[in-house]
Amino acid sequence: xxxxxxxxQFLSMRLRPGTRKGSAIFSAITGxxxxxxxxxxxxxxxxxxSSGDQTPLxxxxxxxxxxxxxxxxxxSPLISASFGASLDLQKLRAYxxxxxxxxxxxxxxxxxxxxxxxxxLLGLTVGLLRNPMLGWRYSPLIIGGTVIFAAxxxxxxxxxxxxxxxxxxxxxxxxxxxxxLVTIAVLPQILLATKIRKGTVLGLAPSQIVWPWAAxxxxxxxxxxxxxxxxxxxWLGAAAVFSRWQFERTLKYDGASIRKPEREAxxxxxxxxxxxxxxxxxxxxxxxMVEKELRTYFRIPRFRLVYAMSCFFGVIVFLPMMRRGQQGxxxxxxxxxxxxxxxxxxxxxxxxxxxxxxxxAVQGYFSWPVKFRDVLIAKNLTVWAMLAPQVLxxxxxxWIAKLGAGPGKIVEALFVVAxxxxxxxxxGNICSVRIPRAMNPDKMNQxxxxxxxxxxxxxxxxLLPVVLAYWSRWFFESETIFVAxxxxxxxxxxxxxxxxxxxxxxxxxxxxxEKMLLELTKSDGPMSIT
Length: 530
Known about the structure:
mainly alpha, two-stranded antiparallel ribbon, 23 helices
């Protein structure tokens, strides 16, 4: 039965002549580069734990490090909006497949969520085996401990994913869930920013053997091995029970049957005024398409979640660099840097794949009396309309963190984001036409890795004009030169945007039209894979 599911998935993924070959090659190259970084991390881990001189510190170090590994393992899929491979249970419920078989496949697929973390664990295992104070005489404990730790996280990840996907569909809980996860993610940065002592940081991760990470730390180092084994196996069993319980609930869950209908917006409500604002500023049909895009995006839970994260996660990423000194580039320009980071986060569910949520409805753009050029411009203007509130929210966050968010910096951030978006939108329009992918608004596991990689690789080139402007201000110590360089960057960006727009329109109305429509009407097989 398991082999039949895998075979069906393979048949649904097979390449057709002339389609997806370039995307597959690009994904393979970027995937190799991504895992190469974790191979290096695993190698460094191996070298550290091979040192016999550091052996007395291993329990405390592992008790501090393994909780963050577990936290990353469980939360990184939500932060990156990608849950790896998973079964599409709605497509398999009609078949007489035993629940146990489905559960085994689902747990096996959880390895794809954070498979990169297996490389540092492998480095840890090899390092401890090479350690002269431990070595192969402790091999059963070392190998068994790392296997139990990995299995516990895989099972816990399966249960967490099932729970999160159900909660995401509940209107009253998804925003609360987002706030809770943001708080958990920001908490370590807040603790570090308060300059607490190193001993206090070590004390935050209890090394008592009753905790799952501490049990593994004691087990792999041979300290209180019997008691550590009992504790580790207890947590493994608890993760298995939790995972199976959540899987059973998801299997019986029908989100559409309990989902409450969207409330009609009040005519004088703030959001309704925001939706109708394009109609007062733009001519039809451009205004109508922008209003349609705004209403669509803010009715998608997944977009609202990523949009909220784009406003707050800049603090998580950049606060460690900003707390190292009172002065410096990142501290003086915290607001523009965080706003640019938010712009890049929005790309994967907006301008990089602008037609993803339209799916088969994209055929209407080729049938209605509208120009395809206006369609792309409307989608870009929609993202622009959401950038200004984002800058204001990030400004409040920077003001609370005392990172400098005066009126001048807010105007600067708006200008920098507007100029940078010209470059990002230009390339995004081309990608939306040439490598589109249908996205289900009710699922959180459909983010393409190639778009994530493309964002990373394109950033140095697309941000180069802005970087040159800031370098000029630093080198010449002149605001006038900064404004002049940014003005030139805006002119070049407008030209770049226009050329990219022409290229996207030509491809969509010509050779790429049929392939684009075909890709956007495809559905996943029995497994959803990103």
